[in-house]
Amino acid sequence: MSDDPDGFAAASRLRRMSWRDCLGHFRQEIREGRVAPGSRLPSLAEIETQFGLTRFGARRVVEALRAEGLAHSWHGRGTYVADRPMRFRVGPTTRFSTNVSRDGRSGRVDILDHGIRRAPGEVAARLGIAVGTAVPFALLLGHIEDRPAVLGQHSFAPDLPDTLLDALVRSGGSVSQALADAGFSGFHRQNTLFEARLPTRHEALTLDIPPSQPVMVTTALNVSSEDGRILELSRAVARADLVAFEVPTAAA
Question: Which of 65, 89, 105, 176 is the 20 to 30 Å CA partner of 229?
Answer without folding.
Answer: 89
